[in-house]
Amino acid sequence: MERALATSRDRHSAPPVKNRRIRLMIVDDSMIARSVLSRIVESDDSFELAAVAGTAEDAIEALQSVRVDTILLDLEMPGAGGLRSIPRILDSACGAHVMIVSSSADEGTEETIAALAMGAADALPKPGTGRFNGRFSEVLLSRLKALGYADVSRTPAAPLPVSVVHAPLRAMAADPIKLLAIGASTGGIHALNTFFEALPKRIGAPILVTQHLPAPFMPVFARQLAIAAKREALVAEDGMMLLPDRIIIAPGDAHLTLRDGPVVRLDRSASYSGCMPSLDPMFQSAATLFGPTAVAVVLTGMGRDGVQGAARLVAEGGSVLAQDESSSAVWGMPRAVLEAGLACGLMSPDKLARRVASRLGDGSCK
Fold it and tell me: What residues form the catalytic site here (predicted)?
């Protein structure tokens, strides 16, 4: 298998400089695909091919010494494969984007949704042999230019041991739950499935979900979540009514909020975190309408989305639960909630579901 290739001038490159060429890495086990993709990106002066790799493991090794802006990643490869390696690649990528280029990356497929939920920025189906030119080349180059340079603000800080986080847990309210609001990002699809598997089939309260995913994938995600949760799951629309045990999911191009009724109101204004959709508006509207009877759950994800909304919810008497580090694909959003002193529980998704269930009975926080 071909190892990752990089020249000495690529090693330990400086942070992005405006107007320089966009640096790319191609990760594909097919020599033909690597060759064709290389020719496509090198045909445009906007790009510089910094490295190629035949496996995800080789790519991760190369990223220790090569800095790139975007990684073109195949999903079906020997070893750990592209899909399962996305979190490790992102951890090593210093803010680089991951763009899936794979024959299994058709819009709406389970693999594509999983890849995007794990943090991939975009996905493009790889055509068959001899069909790489023409429209595919144009679309690929256009999307790579749209992604642009690596986002150094997404570079995770050096992780701290769990023992360093000394934020105390809050007491959990005892009021019966009238609204459950769940937010997730990278790794969230798996975490949501685990959560709903452990949640009682009927909790008697509506459920809101904000999962960071692009809009085209939301209908398929909703269908998959409905199966996993054994409940009705719908992509949110303006004016939609909240019903007990119905799951309403934020669309990929709007925040999910509520207005008196309570009914759904979609909001496309800029959010504090910069995410679209964002957890913050969802939690804030839940706080306004439901106060101490609302429970928020913050699952795995990068960044701090949800902290501002969680603070508002706590101020109104609501409760916030967060996923623990060991079960998270990326312990960013849950950690931020914990460090802000807003969490009343820190545990795996199945245990979080059981904590929610405890509010259906005697209201204890065990």
Answer: 185, 212, 305
- At the second CATH level, the architecture of 8-154 is 3-Layer(aba) Sandwich (3.40)
pTM value surpassing 0.90: no
| Distance of alpha carbon 6 from alpha carbon 26, whole angstroms | 11
Spell 304-315 as b/e; 16+ CB within 10 A means b.
bbbbbbbbbbbe
Domain range 167-358, CATH architecture: 3-Layer(aba) Sandwich (3.40)
* Chain region(s) in the chain for CATH 3.40.50.2300: 8-154
Listed in sequence order, the residues at least 6 apart from 191 whose beta carbon sits closer than 8 Å to its beta carbon are 184, 299, 300, 323, 327, 328, 329, 349
Of 114, 167, 80, whose CA–CA distance to 329 is shortest?
114
Catalytic status, residue 305: yes
Catalytic position from the list 85, 104, 185, 285: 185
Give the side-chain half-sphere CA count within 13 A for 354.
6
Cβ atoms of residues 280 and 273 within 8 Å:
yes
Residue 253 designated active-site? no
* Tens-place pLDDT, residues 285-315: 999 999 999 999 999 988 899 999 999 999 9
Based on DSSP, count helices (H) and strands (E) in the chain, helices before strands: 11, 14
Query: What is the spatial distance between Cα 23 and Cα 63, in angstroms, rounded to a whole number?
Result: 12
β 319-323/47-53 pair status: unpaired
Helix 31-42 and helix 135-147, axial crossing angle in degrees, nearest 10: 70
Which is the catalytic residue, given 104, 212, 271, 280? Answer: 212
Alpha helices in the chain (DSSP H): 31-42, 56-62, 81-92, 110-117, 135-147, 188-198, 218-229, 279-290, 307-315, 333-339, 349-358
66-105 residue pLDDT tens: 999 999 999 888 877 788 889 899 989 998 999 999 987 7
Which is the catalytic residue, given 305, 319, 324, 327? 305
Enumerate the CATH 3.40.50.180 domain ranges in the chain, comma separated: 167-358
